[in-house]
Amino acid sequence: VALLGASAKAGKIGNVVLRSLARGPFKVFPVNPNESEILGLRCYSSVSAIPGEVDLAIVALPAQETVDAVRECVDKDVAVVIVTSSGFSESGEEGAKLQSELSSVLQGSRTRLLGPNTMGVLVPSSQLDTLFIPEDRSPRPSAGEVTVLSQSGAVAVSFLEKARKFGMGIRACVGLGNKLDISESELLRLFAEDSGTKCIALYLESFKDGGEFIDAARTVTPQKPIVILKSGRTPTGSRAARSHTGAIASSSDSVVDGVLRQSGVVRVYDEEELVDISRALAHLDRVDGYRVCVVASAGGFGVMAADLIESSEHGVGLSMAALSETTIRRLRELVPAYSSVLNPVDLTAEVNDSMYDSVLEVLQRDNGIDIILMSLELQPPRVTKALVEVAIRRSRDASVPIVVCAFGTDTAPDVVEELEANRVPVYPTIRRGVKAVSALCQRGTYLRRMKR
Amino acid sequence: VALLGASAKAGKIGNVVLRSLARGPFKVFPVNPNESEILGLRCYSSVSAIPGEVDLAIVALPAQETVDAVRECVDKDVAVVIVTSSGFSESGEEGAKLQSELSSVLQGSRTRLLGPNTMGVLVPSSQLDTLFIPEDRSPRPSAGEVTVLSQSGAVAVSFLEKARKFGMGIRACVGLGNKLDISESELLRLFAEDSGTKCIALYLESFKDGGEFIDAARTVTPQKPIVILKSGRTPTGSRAARSHTGAIASSSDSVVDGVLRQSGVVRVYDEEELVDISRALAHLDRVDGYRVCVVASAGGFGVMAADLIESSEHGVGLSMAALSETTIRRLRELVPAYSSVLNPVDLTAEVNDSMYDSVLEVLQRDNGIDIILMSLELQPPRVTKALVEVAIRRSRDASVPIVVCAFGTDTAPDVVEELEANRVPVYPTIRRGVKAVSALCQRGTYLRRMKR
C-alpha cells in the first residue's frame, strides 16, 4: 500500500491515513519527496521508487498535484488508486477540468480509481482503514455484515457512529466520492458476490449511469437486500448535491422512486433510517406477509404501535393481524384478567418473563401472523434481564420473526448489544421498530414476487 | 402525605412509593393496619388515625379495596387523592362498576382524585415523587421547564428516560390514568398559570370532554405551547386505547386533527417527537416565518436537510431561504473557493470554529432568513469543541434562532448537554432537527395569527 502525500504533521490527512495503515497488516510505503522517514517508516520520493508491485495507492495531495500523482500510479501499474483530494468536479469549472485530466490519465490503463473527493475505505475484518477522519474523532465499528457505499463522507461517518451505538458491525465502508471511474453499480455487483456482505446500504446524490444502476440492482436484490438513501430529491437538494459531489440529477424524483421500487431496492429518507433498515434486513431476510402482531406490557406503546402500523398518513399502512380464536383462548389463560388479548396484546404491568415467553410462543403458532413487534420494557417490577434471553430464544424460532423495541435500557445498555449480537433487530422507539417491520414486509413481498 | 397500602416488601408499589416519598421534605404517614412501622416510619391503621390534616393521599391497593380507602380519604377531607390501582374502567364491566362507585364516593366532597390507574406524579423541584416505578429502573430527570401530562405510564416513563439523555429537565410529570375526576383540561389550565412551566407535553388516548379541551387549549396556547401525542388514531389503535385506559374515541381522527390545529396545539406522532418538540418549544417560542437556512460542513447533510425541509411527502414542506446578494458576497469571502454559498451553505471539511462563527453572523443579519438549521459536525480536523460555544453565543443573538443537529458527539457526550443547558435545541439526526424547525415555524405562525 502506497500513500502519496504522507505527512509527519499530526492532523494532516496524510498523517491520519498513515497512522491507520501502519496499524494494519500491510506493507506500507509512504511517499513524500521531502521526508526520509515518517512514523518510523522509510519514505519514498515517488511511487516508481517503491520496490515491487503496489496493490493500492492512496493519494492525499492538493487537487493540483493529484493528476501527476495518479499518472505515477498508472505508470507503476497500481491496481487501485483512492483519491481523497477534493477540488474536482464538485467545485466549479477549474475542478471539472482537473477531473477530466484525471480521466485522461486513466484511459487505456488497468488502474482503477476510487474518487476523487472520497473519504476512503474501511474493512474492519482485514484491518484496512484509509478513512481520513481519525479514530479518536470517529471510532470504528467492529467487523460485521453490512456494507456501506456512500457518496458523502459525513453520511458514511455518521453511519459508522450510529452502527457502533448498537454494537452493529460493518463488512465494508466505501466512500464513492465523485465516481470518476469506480461506480456504485460496479460495487453493488462486487459486494453481491462477497459472502461476508448480507446487506448493502447506499447513500447516493446521483446515479453515475441510471441504466447500469437498474441492471445492477435487479441482479443483486433477488439475492441480497439493498437499502438506499437517495438525496437531492427536491430542486434545492438537487442543486446542492451538484455543488457537493458534482452530482447531476438525471431525472425527476418520482421516476427515481418508481425505478427503485421495481428494482426491489428499499428506499429510506434519512441517515438514521439507513442504519436502522439495513440492520433489520441483514438479520431477517424473510417475512411472509403484511399481518403484524404487537405485544407490549405498556398499553400506551401498544396503542401507538397499532396507529403507526395501520395509518398510511402518519405511519406505514400495514395490517394489524386478526388473532385466531385458539390464540385468543390460549392468551386468556396467560395474561391478567383485565388485560386485552386482542391485537395489540397488552400484558400490563403485571408482566413477568415467563408470561412474555408463553405469550410469544402462542403468537408464533398463529398462522395469521407474519411478524411480531415486541415492545420490551424493562421497567415493570417483575421483569428481569432474562426477558432479553426470551426475545433471543423466541427469535430463533424462525416461524414468525420478531422485531424488538426496547425501553428502559438506560440502566441496562448491554441489552441492545446483546439483542443485536444475536441478530434480533432492536430499536429505541416504536416508530423506528414499526419502520423496520415495514421494510421487512416490503422485502418479503419482493422476494415472493421474484419467485413467481 | 399519606400512603394507603404502604408495604414493607421490596418491589411492591406501596414500598417503591414510600421510599421515594421518604426521601423528600414531606411528613409521610404510611397506612397499613398490619404493620406498626415501615422503613422506620410509624404506620397508621387508617387515614382517620393520622393526626392533623392530610394534603395528599396515595392509594396503592388492589382495586377492590380502593373504594373504601378513597371513602376514608374523603371523610378525612384530604385535598388530593392519587389512585395508582388499576382494574377499573380499563378492564371490563366489573372494573367500570368499581369506577362508578369511586365516583359516587367523591360526590359532594372537596376531595379531588387523580386516576385511577395512574402512575403518579413527579415534581423534581419540590422532590415530590409518587411514581410507582423505582428510580433504579427509571432514573429521574432534573428540574426543568417542560410539564408532561400522560394518559399512559409507560409513555411518561419513556419521556423521562429520553429527557435525561439530553440533560433536559422536567417541571412536572403527571400520570392522568382513567381521568375519573381530574382531567387534562383542568391540568392544562393549572400549568398555564405555573410560571415554572414553559411548555406542556401531552400524551392522550382520549379527551375527557372534547369541548372543555378546546376551551382550555385555546386559553393556554396564546401564552404557552402545547404539544400533543394523541393516539388511538386508527380503528385498531382506538379499540386498544379503550381497553388500555377505558378511553372512548369521541370523534374521527380528522376532526380531532382540525380541532387541534385551530386551537394552536402542535401535534406529534410518536414518543420521541413528543420529547423533541416540547424541548424546542420550551427553549424558543418565536420564529417569524417559514424561510429556513441550512449550514453544514458536511455537504451530504446539507443536501439531505434541504430535501427534508422542502419536500411535503417525505419532509416538512417549508421553504429554503433565498440568500440576499450581500449575504452571498460576504460568505464568498469566508468559505473555501470551491464551496457553495447558496442555501444550504457548505463549509466543507476545511471548516474551523471561527469560519463557522463568521458565517452564522452573516446569516443572522440576512432579513430573508427566519431560522437557521446548523449541522454541527465535530469530526473535521480543524473543528474544536469551542464550536459549541459559537453555537451557544450565536443562539443568544435572538434575531434569527438556531436549531442544531450535532454529529460526532460519541466522543464528546457533554456537547449535547451543554447546548441543552444553554437553551439551544439540539438533535442527533437531520430529520429530528428539521421537525423541530417545522414545529417552531408552526408555533410562530400561530402566534402571529393570534396577534391579528
Biggest chain contact = A-B, 89 and 89 residues
Number of strand elements of chain A: 20
What is the alpha-carbon Rg of chain A in Å? Answer: 25 Å
Structural class of chain A: alpha/beta
Mean of residue pLDDT values of chain A: 94
Q: What is the helical fraction of chain A, as a range of percent?
A: 40-55%
Largest sheet of chain A: 7 strands, mixed
- The N- and C-terminal alpha carbons of chain A lie at a distance of 47 Å
Helix count of chain A? 15
Quaternary structure: homodimer
Strand content of chain A: 15-25%
| Strand numbers in spatial order across the main sheet of chain A | 9-8-11-10-12-13-14
Shape of chain A: elongated
Describe, in plain words, how this protein is organized in 3D.
Two copies of one chain form a homodimer. Chain A contains 15 helices and 20 strands. Chain A has helices at residues 13-23, 63-75, 93-106, 153-165, 184-193, 210-220, 235-245, 253-262, 271-283, 299-310, 325-334, 353-364, 386-396, 414-421, 430-451, and strands at 2-4, 29-31, 37-38, 41-42, 56-59, 80-83, 112-114, 121-123, 128-129, 143-150, 170-175, 199-204, 226-230, 266-268, 291-296, 319-320, 345-346, 371-377, 402-407, 426-427. Chain A starts with a strand and ends with a helix. Helices cover 40% and strands 17% of the residues of chain A. In chain A, the strands form four sheets. The first copy, chain A, has a seven-stranded mixed sheet, sandwiched between helices. In chain A, strands 15, 16, 17, 18, 19 and 20 form a six-stranded parallel sheet that branches. Chain A has 452 residues and is an alpha/beta fold. In chain A, 60% of the residues are buried. In chain A, strand 1 (2-4), helix 1 and strand 2 form a beta-alpha-beta unit. In chain A, helix 5 packs parallel to helix 6 (210-220) and helix 10 crosses helix 15 (430-451).
